Amino acid sequence: MNCSITNCEKAEKVRGYCKHHYRKEYLLKIHPLYIIWQSIVQRCENKNCKAYDYYGGRGIIVCKLWRENYKEFENYMGDRPSLKHTVDRINTNGNYEPGNVRWASKQEQQRNRKLRKTNTTGIHGVVYNEKCKRYRTRISYNSKTIYGGSFKTLEEAKECRIKLEKMYPAK
Fold first, then answer.
1. Which of 1, 78, 129, 147 lies 20 to 30 A from 29 at CA?
2. Is 53 helix (H, G, I), strand (E, B) or coil?
3. Nearest one of 29, 58, 44, 159 to 96, comparing CA atoms
4. pLDDT digits over 3-60, tens only?
5. With helix as H, strand as E and coil as C, how does 83-103 read?
6. Cα 125 from Cα 160, distance rounded (Å)
C-alpha cells in the first residue's frame, strides 16, 4: 500500500504515510515543536547526523526528562514567539535542559556563540591584531558587521564592545 499523500509512490510505513510524509504531515499536526525536539535529539545522539560533531560529538546531551518525555519539553518551552525564533542554549557548552534553553532570534543566537579558536581575548567581538598591535571591536547587526574601532588596551576595546551591544541590541 502506498502513502496517502497524492502522487507519493513510496510505501506506507506509519499511519497511512511514508516515513517522509509521516514526519512532515502527521507529526506537525500533533505540535510544530515536536519536529524541533526531534532535531535536537538527532544532533545530540545520532552519529550519522551532519551536526552531530558540533553537539553530541562535543558531549552535549538532551536531559533525561526531556529525552524520555517530549511533552515535558513542550511544556517548558511553551509556544514559539515567531517563526524567526529557534531554540537556543544559553550556555553554548551546556546541555539541552531546563534553565539552559530559551527561544531566541537569529541575532540573539549570533551573539551567544562559543568563542572562535583564534580569539585570544576571551571576549566576543574583540580580537587582537598582531600586525597593528591593537585590539579591534566589531558587532553584527541586521546581517551587517559594524566596526567599533581599534584600541591600545583590552580594557578600552571591552568598553567599546559593551557600548556597541547597547547601541545595537539583539532583536
1. 1
2. helix
3. 44
4. 877 778 787 776 677 877 776 666 666 677 888 999 999 999 999 999 999 999 999 9
5. CCCEEEECCCCCCECCCCEEE
6. 10
The amino acid sitting at 54 is Y
pTM: 0.65
**Spatial separation of the C-alpha atoms in residues 133 and 119, rounded to whole Å:** 15
Which grid cell sits at 135?
Answer: 585590539
Query: Radius of gyration over alpha carbons of the chain, in Å?
Result: 21
Own/partner pairs, 132-138, CB within 8 angstroms, 24+ separation: 137/161, 137/164, 138/164
Backbone angles phi and psi of 67, in degrees to 5: -65, -40
In whole angstroms, what is the distance from residue 74 CA to residue 38 CA? 12
Contacts of 17 (CB under 8 A, 6+ apart): 3, 4, 5, 25, 26
